[in-house]
Amino acid sequence: MALLFHVAQASDIDQASQSGSYRCESIDADGFIHCCKPDQLQGVLERYYSGVKGLLLMHIDSGLLRSELVFENTVGGEELFPHIYGPINMDAVVQIASL
């Protein structure tokens, strides 16, 4: 199992719990769901979520994903980040924790 993380809003998780698949606004805006590897999590939290309250952390088993997973950097850097091109099937989510 390769573990990935996704920082989520509680309202998106609530909808996913009912529908069985997770979507967020980045699918419409960017075409994919932003994720990170465990060693990238601290940097992502510091850069994008400093001071934001009420977030949840999805732990995702990448081997169970039904949507395409691509490791890439879309902003021009060298570090590759996991992007999921489609919804996340909730049976790939092994844990949801508060941040």
Mean pLDDT: 95
Strand content: 35-45%
Give the termini distance in whole angstroms.
Answer: 22 Å
Quickly count the helices: 3
Give a description of the structure.
The structure is a single chain. With 99 residues, the protein is α+β, with helices and mostly antiparallel strands. The chain has a single domain (3-98), classed as ADP-ribosylation fold (Alpha-Beta Barrel). It has 3 helices and 8 strands. It has helices at residues 10-19, 25-30, 41-48, and strands at 3-9, 21-22, 33-34, 55-61, 68-72, 81-85, 88-89, 93-98. The strands form 3 sheets. It has a 3-stranded antiparallel beta sheet. Strands 3-6-5 form a 3-stranded antiparallel beta sheet.
Can you describe this structure in just a few lines?
By secondary structure, the protein is α+β, with helices and mostly antiparallel strands. The chain is 24% helix and 36% strand.
